[in-house]
Amino acid sequence: MSITGRCYCGACTYEVTGATFFHAQCHCRECQYISGGGPNYFMMCKAEDYRITKGTPTAFARPDLDTPVTRHFCPTCGTHLNTYPRPSMVVIKVGTLDDPADYPGPESAIYTCDLQSFHQIHEGLPQFEKLPPRG
Ligand SMILES: [Zn+2]
Ligand SMILES: [Zn+2]
């Protein structure tokens, strides 16, 4: 199984060759900056299953935070391609998929602590103030 994606201009492309998991929508304030104000639809994969196949994304981590995540952006068009919450895990932004149908849809809504009045959550979707408890 292989999932591919790219930035808006096409200078950066990537491939995911393993399983994806934690399909969710994140309402956190940080995601709002990057998504356009709505929740950020994402899924995760293991870092070993993710590789950049073209281009060199720019890494950014906020220097003012104690444990910042590292985000990667296309240096040409600025598209946010992925986030590494820790070195072994990659958060894939659904908007960058070549075929958005590779995303099965969110299984939960997270960080509803930052929910805005105009955000939508499908009825029946499990909601978590922050992250779901680890099972
Ligand atoms: Zn680009
Ligand atoms: Zn978020």
Mean of all residue-level pLDDT scores: 96
Helix content range: under 10%
Give the bound compounds: zinc ion
Strand content: 25-35%
CATH topology heading: Metal Binding Protein, Guanine Nucleotide Exchange Factor, Chain A
Kindly describe this structure.
The chain is mainly β. It has a single domain (3-114), classed as Beta Complex (Metal Binding Protein, Guanine Nucleotide Exchange Factor, Chain A). It contains 1 helix and 10 strands, in the order E-E-E-H-E-E-E-E-E-E-E. It has one helix at residues 29-35; strands at 3-6, 13-16, 21-26, 40-46, 50-54, 58-60, 70-73, 80-86, 89-93, 109-110. The chain has a 7-stranded mixed β-sheet. Strand 8 (80-86) and strand 9 (89-93) form a beta hairpin. The longest helix is centred in the N-terminal third of the chain and has 7 residues, at 29-35. It is globular, with a radius of gyration of 14 Å. The relative contact order is 0.24. The model has no long low-confidence stretch (mean pLDDT 96). It binds zinc ion (2 copies).
Question: Could you provide a short overview of the structure?
Answer:
The protein has a 7-stranded mixed beta sheet with strand order 6-7-8-9-4-3-10. A 3-stranded antiparallel beta sheet has the order 1-2-5, with no helix packed on it. 5% of the residues lie in helices and 35% in strands. It has 135 residues and is mainly β.
